[in-house]
Design brief:
The structure holds 2 protein chains of 2 kinds. Chain A has a 3-stranded mixed beta sheet. Chain A is built from 7 helices and 4 strands, in the order βαααββαβααα. Chain A is α+β, with helices and mostly antiparallel strands. Chain A is globular. Chain B is globular, with a radius of gyration of 14 Å. Chain B has 3 helices and 8 strands. A 4-stranded antiparallel beta sheet of chain B has the order 3-4-5-6. Chain B has a two-stranded antiparallel sheet with strand order 1-2. In chain B, strands 7-8 form a two-stranded antiparallel ribbon. Helix content of chain B is 22%, strand content 34%. The longest helix of chain B is centred in the middle third of the chain and has 12 residues, at 63-74. Chain B is α+β, with helices and mostly antiparallel strands. The chains are: A alpha+beta, B alpha+beta. The interface between A and B is large, with 90 and 78 residues. Strand 1 (5-13) of chain A pairs antiparallel with strand 7 of chain B, so a sheet runs across the interface.
Chain lengths: 169, 134
């Protein structure tokens, strides 16, 4: 039998009290994503299906910084980015500054498979999602207490500070 | 940021990355998660990579593609490629970089220079390994 394998990540950076306090939930979310992706592979699904399914699960989990659990920018808005790449065809899809799309990774894959483009951003990406009935959510779906607390804590007065802050995804 | 890399039983690999961005950043700021070659890359002949950390560093140092290309150039393992790109070639950058990678034989490459990287992986019928810190 040929090898099948999957790895997932939930971000890298400085440690925080929130992470230390939520290790069990984080680990549970990571294990669930691996098992979901692995099950896709075990059923004979493609690596592309597996990574999309694993990332979708983490996008739906408010504890991770993606989709439902997105960080908030200086205006308190959600702006999501995602990309996907198929190693067998060397094809790729990407979206950036997307709002209201429940699973940005699925929109990225849609762009890879249904347009001749690789990367579509902002309102163009949202239009494609709407025209092709990809799942959308209202703004409040993406707002979590943890991210609001984080923004309030980090808020700096003048824009220069914001421009110079370390940018940790 | 979240990401995944996978190998299927046809021997194909793929990568995906998704992020909600950075807290309190300027409107319109994008990071590495949507930049092919920086936060996401896959090529059957080398490896699949999903990156995370300081977005600007992954973009300016083209991290994901560097790992895949280094593997091809040096014919080394995916773990060696991850370690070289993060801990040697970019040892002087100030900021956090973390990657998960996987080649078409099922070998993992996991490397990061930050205080933590939330990660988990599984191959064949092994039990899932899940880690946050070293």
């Amino acid at each position: 039998m040929k090898n099948i394998a999957i790895a997932v990540h939930g971000g890298a950076g400085q440690d925080s009290e929130f992470i230390r306090m939520n290790q069990i939930a984080y680990k549970a979310g990571l294990v669930k994503a691996v098992n979901t992706g692995y099950e896709t592979l075990k059923q004979g699904g493609s690596a592309l299906d597996a990574v999309e399914n694993a990332v979708r699960l983490m996008e739906d989990n408010p504890i991770f910084n993606s989709a439902r659990g997105s960080a908030l920018n200086a205006k308190g808005e959600v702006e999501m980015d995602a990309s996907i790449m198929d190693g067998s065809k060397h094809s790729a899809g990407a979206v950036s500054i997307v709002r209201n799309v429940k699973n940005p990774v699925t929109l990225a894959r849609f762009i890879m498979e249904n347009t001749s483009h690789v990367f579509i951003s902002g309102y163009g990406a949202l239009e494609i999602a709407k025209e092709n009935n990809l799942e959308l959510e209202v703004d409040s779906y993406f707002i979590t207490e943890h991210r609001v607390d984080e923004l309030i804590k980090e808020r700096m007065d003048d824009t220069d500070d914001i421009k110079r802050k370390r940018k940790n995804g | 940021t979240v990401g995944a890399v996978a190998l299927d039983n046809a021997g194909n690999i793929a990568a995906a990355t998704s992020t909600g961005g950075t807290s309190n950043c300027l409107s319109g700021r994008i990071g590495d998660s949507c930049i092919i070659g920086a936060g996401c890359f896959a090529n059957n002949s080398s490896c699949a990579v999903s990156g995370t950390g300081d977005g600007e560093l992954l973009i300016t140092n083209v991290i994901a593609h560097s790992i895949a290309f280094y593997m091809e150039l040096k014919n080394c393992s995916v773990q060696e490629a991850c370690d070289y790109v993060i801990h040697q070639r970019n040892k002087d950058v100030e900021g956090d970089i973390g990657v998960i990678a996987l080649d078409a034989m099922g070998n993992f490459g996991i490397s990061y220079n930050s205080q933590r990287m939330l990660r988990a992986w599984k191959m064949n019928e092994e039990i899932v390994t899940v880690k946050i810190y070293k």
